[in-house]
Design goal:
By secondary structure, the protein is largely without helices or strands. The chain has helices at 3-11, 274-291. The chain is built from two helices and no strands.
């Protein structure tokens, strides 16, 4: 079937085009609302700026396809293969993308708010500036993905793989990252106000200039991390491990730092919580006692 034949059948009311073969086809700017393209072969096809609202592309092959600025809100891409596809500027609001292969895909500026992305493979994908508010990313593979300035407030990230991910400038306010593995992750200038990082592993993480007001770091491991210029006022830092971390120029006003571990921690020109002041005073007193 060629493109013209497809469009004629669509105009006649046909909506089932499952297992279609249109590799490399030009479907740019077409309108195919609520069609069934399950299992279709669209490798290298051009679907840029097309309208596929509420369409079903479950298990479709779209490797290296151009879906830039596609409008596919409420659509289905379950288990679809979108490896290295171009989805920049795509509208996929509330779409079902569970288990999809999106490794190396370009999703810059895409709108995936409220989308279901459970267990999706987004390894090395470019999600710079993407809107993922309220998206379900549980179990997703985001290793080495670029999420610079992405909006993730309200997103579900439990069980997601995040090693090597770039979250600098990302919006993660109120997100649950409890017990997550975030060692070495770039969170520079990220917005994490009121986020739950209880028990999280943040060894050697870059948190320079991060906004961490009211965040919960209870029992988190921040050893060797760089928090220079971070805002941690009203944060819960109880039993947080800051061994060899850099806390220079950090705002810790009204933070709860009871039993925080600050061994070999660099603290310069910071606004300290009373609990840290007392801890430092105790350390200094111990040093003076040893000297005598």
């Amino acid at each position: 079937m060629n493109v013209n034949h497809l469009l004629r059948l669509y105009e006649q009311g046909l909506r089932d085009f499952s297992h279609l073969h249109l590799e490399g086809a030009n479907l740019s700017h077409v309108s195919l609302i609520q069609v069934n393209l399950t299992g279709s072969h669209l490798t290298g096809a051009d679907l840029s700026r097309s309208f596929l609202t509420k369409s079903n592309l479950t298990q479709a092959c779209l490797t290296q396809a151009n879906l830039s600025f596609i409008k596919m809100n409420d659509g289905q891409l379950i288990d679809a293969d979108l490896t290295k596809a171009n989805l920049s500027g795509a509208l996929l609001i509330k779409s079902l993308v569970m288990g999809a292969q999106l490794s190396g895909a370009n999703l810059t500026g895409a709108n995936l708010s409220g989308a279901q992305l459970r267990n999706a493979n987004l390894c090395s994908a470019n999600l710079q500036g993407a809107n993922l508010r309220g998206a379900d990313l549980r179990g997703a593979d985001l290793r080495w993905a670029n999420l610079y300035c992405a909006r993730l407030s309200g997103a579900k990230l439990e069980g997601a793989l995040l090693s090597g991910v770039n979250l600098s400038g990302a919006y993660l306010n109120g997100v649950n990252l409890q017990e997550m593995e975030l060692n070495g992750v770039n969170l520079m200038n990220a917005k994490l106000s009121a986020a739950n990082l209880q028990g999280a592993k943040l060894v050697a993480t870059n948190l320079r200039d991060a906004k961490l007001r009211g965040a919960n770091f209870t029992g988190a491991n921040l050893s060797g991390s760089d928090l220079t210029g971070a805002e941690m006022n009203q944060a819960n830092l109880s039993k947080t491990n800051f061994t060899r971390a850099c806390l220079s120029q950090v705002n810790l006003t009204d933070a709860n730092a009871i039993d925080a571990i600050i061994d070999e921690t660099e603290i310069n020109r910071s606004i300290l919580a009373d609990t840290i002041k007392k801890r430092l005073s105790s350390i200094h007193a111990e040093i003076r006692a040893i000297g005598t």
